[in-house]
Amino acid sequence: xxxRIAYDDDTDVLWIWFRDTGKYAYYAVPPTLFEAFxxxxxxxxxxxxxxxxxxxxxxxxxxxxxxxxx
Length: 70
Known about the structure:
This protein is of the alpha+beta class. Helices cover about 25% and strands about 30% of the residues.
């Protein structure tokens, strides 16, 4: 489900690349939560329990969309 994650310390934005849907930004994520995410035994479970629905998110605003699902 999750391909990779990254965190921007300057803006507190968590970036998550999903295998099927692409890159999303999650805003106002505390750095301690990112650290815990990195150590989680299951990225998908951690995401569902601690990230999804808890933070404002947006599909990568720089993404250029093509096709019917873009």
